[in-house]
Amino acid sequence: MPEVLKSLPRFLPEIALTAALLLVVLVDATGIKARNALSRLLTALGLAAALALSLADHGVPSETWSGMLVADPMGSFFKALLVGASLVVALAFTFRNSAELHGLGQGEFHALLLAVTLSNLLLASANDLAMLYLALEMVSITSYVMVAYFKGDRMSNEASLKYVLFGAVSTGAMVYGMSLLYGLTGSTSLPTIRAFLSEGLTDQNRFAVYLIALLIFAGFGFKTAAVPFHFWCPDVYQGAPTPVTAFLSVAPKAAGFSIMLRFFFGGLSSHGATPWDLSGLIDWTWLLMLISVLTMTVGNVAALTQTNMKRLLAYSSIAHAGYVMMGVVALSENGARALMIYLLAYVVMNLGAFLVVTLVHKQDGTFDLRDYAGLSKRAPGLTFAMAIFLFSLMGIPPLVGFMGKFYVFAAVIERGPSYWAYGTIGAVNAAIGAYYYARVLKTMIIDEPHVEKPAFRLPTADLAWIAALAAANILPLLFWSRVEAWARASLSIYAGL
Amino acid sequence: MIGLPHYLLVSAALFCLGVLGVLTRRNAVNVLMGIELILNSANLNLVAFSRYGSGNLQGQMFAIFVIVIAAAEAAVALAIVLTLYRLRRTPNLDQADILRG
User: Fold this and answer.
1) Mutating which of B15, B57, B66, B100 best tests the A interface, going by the most A Cβ atoms within 10 A?
2) Which of A1, A212, A385, A456 has the fewest Cβ atoms nearer than 10 Å?
3) How far is Cα A201 from Cα A165, in angstroms, rounded to an integer?
4) ipTM associated with this complex
5) What's the predicted TM-score (pTM) here?
């Protein structure tokens, strides 16, 4: 009982989301006329409350719920980021402006959105292998249903089928690795595992831990769409309804990176040194570096030839996962801070780009890049906003995307000359990325359209959200020191014992 | 005398059979059976380690959660396979091939 009373005040964002989730299900079940508007309102209120509560948590880092979860500044940062992303998706991507979701039930969609958000929050603060697995599967299972939401559609069905099969196999490999880790260390609690590993390992066990980490990485790699666990990503992003794609491309990915940080730093690092110090125990750097290089290269090269906008952005999101992972590879406080800043920037630029894709599909009924020709004359405002999102994805100053890239590259380069080749590969990749983003811009601005299309009608609400997301790509630069201070203050991670 | 190594060997064999099933089967339901094998190999590991190794019950508790999650996942996956069958009149995965490139 004292444990519950101690844990409850640190669990308020999750409680707000659970309450909203139950209310949405109940309201939808009543069948009243206003249930769609009401469920959307409840979702927005629940998410806004959860956002405020995550930002308000300033307690000391500690375990909650008998060591199942932790409450620490890094957890609060990721909670705020994840809830914020869900809030933007719930408000900006409505059933009105998505041609795919139009006419489908809204109550279930919002209930699923809240469920994924809740499980993302649990994943971001998991401190035990069992909790980690449960949260990761809860994210996965609810997102399989979201991808399949467009029930009568062959593409949506195929996408969800591929997603569920890839997901089940990767998480199966992960739980097998976890069972071996439990056998080796005798505990499922991350701090205990860390204490055990830091006492030193025989060469035999060192190999076992390497193998275990590979198996467990299958689960994290699946969530973050890292090579070689990325095969589902383009198909799922193309087949899923666009609002779902936008959501999946930011929130579960960010949650995956938060648990990657927590697992590799909180579970598999040496005890006694700072929580971030992994050196001396096992040489992870080269493994993670290889995965990161492959991820960004495969994503960027495959994106070069895409003509479907959703598929292009899917490969671009794989490439961005590679850049974000540079923050993990650096294995330093600056690396973790760079990862957080990059994810903040990634949320606003990627959601913006997907919102433009959704609106063009609503108007013209197409995801094909060739049909974007001449868009600048029909919708100059939309084209200008898309240019901002794409320049931000490219990493052009003075946009937030540049700041994200700047911090991850700086974190890698300051680690010393042996990391410089890696940084160079990253820079080459950023240049390749610039090519296909520029190709989208060229199509929109320079290419002549094949057929005359009616004028582009943009409702005020959509215009406002586009403008808000575009502003979110520029304005943070004006108070950058505060953003940086927030990320720096969030570096504290609960390391236990 | 049967000890920990025997259990570990069986579970490793189950894991490999599960992966093999996932990689070679065309029928979606058979692939799901392979996935169940993978999850159950992990369960066997957890319970065996709990009995012979650490002496605590964390592994058994974990195994119960894995069983529950496997049931939930199978429910969602079978619903999706059923929709596949309704849309294409086949449970075969190689006919789900409109998304590519």
Assistant:
1) B66
2) A1
3) 36
4) 0.96
5) 0.94
